[in-house]
Amino acid sequence: MSSAVRVDGQAREVALAEAQAVRAMASGDEYRERLAELLAAVDEGEVGGDDAETLEELLELGLQTGRIRAHYGPGGEQAALSLYRRLPRGADLAESAREVTTALRALQGRALTSVELTAVGPGAFSLSIAAGEFEVSLRLDRQGARVASLGV
To answer: Which range marks the domain in which residue 142 is found?
Structure first.
C-alpha cells in the first residue's frame, strides 16, 4: 500500500476491540505479534503496509460472519465498512463494482432477451445478460463482481 489509511472515530474503536478480541483467542505467536503491531498502528490512528493487510483480514472476517454487527451494532458495522472500503482490497472491490455498473449501463433501456446464472464452483457464479445486440457476462465470487466479457 503506497499511503497510510487514517483510522479514527467509531471505526478505530471497532478495529481496536476486534484486534484485541482476536489476539486474545489466537494461538500462533506470529499471528499474535501481527495483531499487536496492528493494535499499535490503530492506536496511533493510521495503518499501512502489513498492518493494513492484517486489518483487512480482521474486518473481512468480522463483517462476513456478522460478528461486527452483533457486537457493535449497525453503527459499528457501517464504520467498519467505511474503513474497509478505504483499505486496498475494499477499494479494489468498489472499483470492480463501478466497472460492472458501467458495463451494465450498455443494457439500459433495451429489452432483455436472456438472463442466465451458472454456478461455476463453490461460491462462484457466472451471470450472463443479453439485451438487444449487447451481452454482458459477469463473474461473481468471493473476490467480488467483475466483467468477464462484454459483447456487441
So the answer is: 96-151
Give me the chain's average pLDDT, please: 93
Do the Cβ atoms of 145 and 100 come closer than 8 Å?
yes
C-alpha cell at 5: 489509511
Longest dimension (CA), the chain: 58
pLDDT digits (tens, 9 = 90+) for 104-141: 998 999 999 999 999 999 999 999 999 988 999 999 99
The domain tally of the chain equals: 2
Q: 31 and 82 share a domain?
A: yes
The whole-model pTM stands at: 0.80
31 and 13: one domain? yes
| pLDDT tier at 85, thresholds 50, 70, 90 | very high
- Cβ(112)–Cβ(131) below 8 Å: yes
Taking residue 151's Cβ as centre, other Cβ atoms within 10 Å add up to 11
